[in-house]
Every structure is written in structure tokens, then in C-alpha cells.
Amino acid sequence: MRFVDEYRDGRVARALLDDIRATVTRPWTIMEVCGGQTHTLIRQGIDQLLPAEIELVHGPGCPVCVTPVSLIDRAIAVAGLPEAILCSFGDMLRVPGSAEDLLQARAAGGDVRVVYSPLDAVEVARRNPDRTVVFFAVGFETTAPANAMAVLRAGQLGLDNFALLVAHVLVPPAMVAILASPGNRVQGFLAPGHVCTVMGWEEYEPIARDYGVPLVVTGFEPVDLLEGIRMVVAQLEEGRATVENQYVRSVRREGNPWARRVVAEVFEPADRAWRGIGTIPSSGLALRVAYRAFDAEERFPWIGGEVHADPASDTCIAGLVLRGRARPDACPAFGTDCTPERPLGAPMVSSEGACAAYFLAGRPKLAGVEAR
162-168 and 132-139: which strand pairing? Predict the structure, then answer.
């Protein structure tokens, strides 16, 4: 087993880069799904160190970024109710809704509170029995166990004033949607290590088999990512398509059985609209019938209409970025009309967003791309 420092060791990284250069013989396009991986790749300049034959594209692995405007509008509507308290992780507060964001809703008098765990929101509900506390449950499979536990804990405490506004999305259906889309260029994936820590990689095996693409479960340190890229390139060059695990210190094939059980008890698969992508069948989670009493949309059915994918913008190309069709620095608004202080799209807001990764790394706009 490696020491932790070796995952940031320049000598190990150089050896992996040399191995990749010695292995690759033709162009390949590889997608990293996770926003945390994107930030490491861009911050460390790994994409610029790879041989020219390897193109990295960024996937929809930022749950904040793919939450539709209509769901954010629902959260804002809840925040405006005098009888309600809206609890959320901090990175959702500045994601634009159709007219404002949650930060603006709080400034206008809405009771919006930042919490660090859904169990914190349960405690807010316990301390405020006369008000309904709604937790904005955004995330991939990684955060689903904690949100499921919050529902179970609220039930144990008899808190009928706690609810979730569920915006959970699932990684495998999104990967299938990308592979099945017309004009897809992705030939291999770095699969998200944190999601697979919870869920394992069994769900990815049919994807590798049916679409003939290698998937490597990969961690987040620079050496993790270089090793994952090397493993994907080796499969591509050898004509193999299977699931391999680079993140051996954290991930097992079966994942975390306890976490999977608690998620399956509280949630069930549901169709979900993805911001910038569209509706993907069975790509989200919804509360099971037995737990619908904790569903904010059941509690406040009038807060919004149908949840739908958002229309494309003439200026912001966030949808293309989330589908791996364009890089953030190819956007005409990048770094000018769109910055973390004045974001046009969610990928510039979130700490996992690809646009924010490019901006924070000081990447310039591509030559020839004019601001509008």
C-alpha cells in the first residue's frame, strides 16, 4: 500500500506520464465524470502534461450544476413561506434560479440556513416544532445515505415538520445517456471514486460490456488520476472494455452494503431532469411511498409545476460543458460576462463545476472566442 504522500509524488507522476506516452499510439477521448477530479486535473495542469493524443473531456459530475432551475425555484418558493425554514449546503445558495438565487431569497427575508449535514436540518426541525424544515437534498449517490438517515432519524423522533426537497441524481444512467447520444466521442471513463465507495462498481459492468468502453474507478489525487488514465489507455490500446479499480484503498466491487441498504429502504429510482442535458429515465431518486410524508413536494404541491430541463442560453454554453461537448474556455462568456462573482451558469458557481475549475486555475479563453 502506498503512503498518502505518494499520491502527490512528482517522481511517481513523471513515471506514470512516461508510461502513458510509451503506451498511446492513436487519439483517444476520455471523460472524467466527477467534478472533484476535474478540479485536480485542471489545477495541477495534468491535462496539459498528457500526450497530445489524449483528450480529456469533463462530464456532468457536479450535482449542483445539473440541478434544474425549476427545482431551485421550488426551493426559493419554500424559503419564502413564513411557516418554513429552508436548509441547504452552502454551494447551492448562489446557483441561479429563473429570477433569483437562494442568497437573494434570504436577503429578501426568506429563512435560508446553511447546514453541513442533513442531520443538522433534523436538529433544526426538532428545535422549531412550529415550522416546517425542508432540506434541499442535492447530490449523487454519495450523499444519499446521509439523506436517507435524516429521514429515518426524523421518523424515530416523531418529527412531522421535517421534509426533503429531493434532487438526487445517479451516475450510471447519465453515462449511458452520454454514450447513446448522437455524435458521442467518449471512448473511456474515469468513474467517480466517491460514488463507487458507496455503490461499488457492479452497475458499471453492463455499461462497459454493452458500449465497449473501459471504465476505471479512480481517486482524486494527482497520481490517482494519472494511474486511472494509464489504465484506461492500456485497455483502449489493447481493445479491452471492462471495469477496473484504481481506487483500491477505498472502493470494493460491492461498495458499502449498509449504505446501499439504507438508500434502498428510503428511496427508489425515478426519472430526473438534468440541467443542460434533459430528462434521463431512472436517473434520480425519489422517496418511497412509505416515506412520502417527508416529501416537500407532497407537503407543498403548489410550489412549482413540472420539473424540466432548462432551455439553452445564447451566451452560456453550460449544457455543452456538462455533456462533454465543449470546454469551459470555449464559452464566449467565460471570464468576462461569467465569473464566480457574477455567474451565468451553475458550473461557474459550484466548487465542483468545470467552469470554476478553469477560472480558478487562471486558464485564458481560447483564442478566437469572442465575448458576446
Answer: parallel
- Write out the three cell numbers for 335: 471570464
Rounded to whole angstroms, the Cα distance separating 25 from 223 reads 22
The residue whose grid cell reads 432551455 is: 311
At 295, give phi and psi (nearest 5°): -95, 120
Query: Which of these, 308, 348, 343, 309, lies nearest to 328 by C-alpha position?
Result: 348
The one-letter code for the residue type at 298 is E
For the chain, residues classed under CATH 3.40.50.11740 are 69-168+256-299
The reported pLDDT for the residue numbered 4 is 46
At 326-342, the pLDDT tens digits run 899 999 999 999 998 88
Radius of gyration of the chain (CA): 21
User: What fold is seen in the domain 4-63+171-245?
Assistant: Rossmann fold (3.40.50)
φ and ψ of 128, to 5 deg: -130, 65
Question: What number does CATH give the domain 69-168+256-299?
Answer: 3.40.50.11740
State the residue for C-alpha cell 483500491.
248
Cα(54)–Cα(46) distance, rounded to whole angstroms? 11
pLDDT, averaged across the chain = 91
Q: Is the pTM of this model over 0.85?
A: yes
For 26, other C-beta atoms within 10 Å of its C-beta total 7
The three three-digit cell numbers of residue 167, written as one number: 434532487
DSSP designation for 169 = B
In the chain, the amino acid numbered 252 is R
User: Is the pLDDT at 312 greater than 70, yes or no?
Assistant: no
In the chain, CATH 3.40.50.11750 covers: 4-63+171-245
91 backbone dihedrals φ, ψ, rounded to 5°: -75, -5
Residues 126-150 have pLDDT tens digits of 999 999 999 999 999 999 999 999 9
Whether the pLDDT of residue 314 is over 70: the answer is: no
Which residues are paired to 169 by β-bridges?
284
Cross-strand pairs, 133: 85, 162
Q: Which of 266, 62, 316 is CA-nearest to residue 174?
A: 62
Q: Amino acid letter at 162?
A: F
Q: For residues 274 and 260, what is the distance between their CA atoms, to the nearest angstrom?
A: 23
